[in-house]
Specification:
Helix content: 25-40%
Number of helices: 12
Shape: globular
CATH topology of the largest domain: Rossmann fold
Length: 309
């Protein structure tokens, strides 16, 4: 069985985020704690996998083959799901062999790894890339990097219902929009599809423009036939892919001391810092209520010397 049994329904709590800079601006933010849905199959990665796993099951596949880097949250969640639910996983990795805490976990979870180098990994978007891998692993279903594409976005649509059921507990009748980090844009596209123009979705780009996130989002929405596209993207990359700098780390440390919620610097930390910058610039009127999506990825803290939370 590829797809997990129906009784496994992970829950993500919605909590108020209390920070001085939000209070000073009169902005309310509730944080959707996808980092808490499971110790290993964490964050938005699970929701992006759901529809891909259904397709694999329909096609009679025995497992999944996908791509990522040496600190990939996607491959970490995929490998953990494979171990939990009993299906084979293969990871095609960017760069050359190295040992990271994430790679150690992938191996412990039983994922078969292949290192593609950097040139080989860049070829992942070229026609025919998957042919030799499907020949080598004919029983595995290929899933794009980060479980992207329309299936990944459709899996993330259910986040809207998850939030809607919890707003009353915060004393909110509704929310005014979403804020989240973007690595592939898949989760953002899913929320745009789910909102269907009702509420805007704001994406903090954790990667540079040349990663093509804006184009990927547009391709997903076009494939889905979405015409009312209420979203906006903001640069939060800090000047490069996986770029981490002292001001970002200091902001994360201060935020964690203030609210007790752990963040990581590659996605959630960058997204929250970008939100503070927009709030302080007056982007949102007092009284605005936003849902911040905590996309997980806390296992990646270990790769930069921070303890896993």
């Amino acid at each position: 069985m590829l797809f997990p049994p129906d009784h496994w329904q992970p829950q993500a709590p919605l909590e108020p985020l209390h920070l001085d800079w939000l209070t000073d601006a009169g902005i309310e933010v509730a944080i959707l704690r996808l980092d808490l849905i499971d110790p290993l199959i964490s964050g938005n990665k699970w929701f992006k996998l759901i529809e891909h796993l259904k397709i694999a099951e329909q096609r009679g596949a025995e497992g999944i083959i996908s791509l990522g880097g040496a600190h990939s949250n996607h491959l970490h969640a995929l490998a953990a799901a494979g171990k939990r639910f009993g299906f084979a996983t293969v990871g095609l990795l960017r760069g050359h062999p190295q040992q990271t805490p994430t790679i150690d976990d992938l191996q412990d979870f039983g994922m078969q790894l292949h290192w593609l180098g950097y040139g080989g990994y860049r070829a992942r978007h070229q026609a025919g890339f998957w042919e030799p891998w499907q020949a080598q692993y004919p029983t595995l279903h290929p899933v794009p990097e980060g479980a992207g594409g329309l299936p990944g976005a459709r899996g993330c649509m259910q986040l809207r219902a998850c939030v809607g059921e919890q707003l009353a507990g915060l004393g909110w009748r509704d929310h005014d929009g979403w804020w989240l980090a973007c690595g592939t844009g898949t989760t953002l596209a899913g929320l745009v599809l789910a909102e269907a123009g009702e509420k805007p979705v704001y994406g903090a780009l954790a990667v540079p423009d040349d990663h093509g996130v804006a184009q990927q989002v547009e391709e997903i929405l076009m494939e889905a036939g979405m015409t009312d596209r209420a979203y906006e993207l903001f640069d939060a990359s800090r000047g490069g892919f996986a770029k981490v700098d002292p001001p970002l780390l200091e902001f994360i440390e201060q935020t964690e001391r203030a609210c007790g919620i752990p963040f990581e610097p590659l996605y959630t930390g960058k997204a929250l810092l970008a939100l503070r910058q927009q709030v302080e610039a007056g982007r949102f009127a007092p009284g605005t209520r936003l849902v911040f999506v905590h996309t997980g990825g806390l296992q990646g803290r270990r790769g930069i010397g921070l303890k896993s939370c």
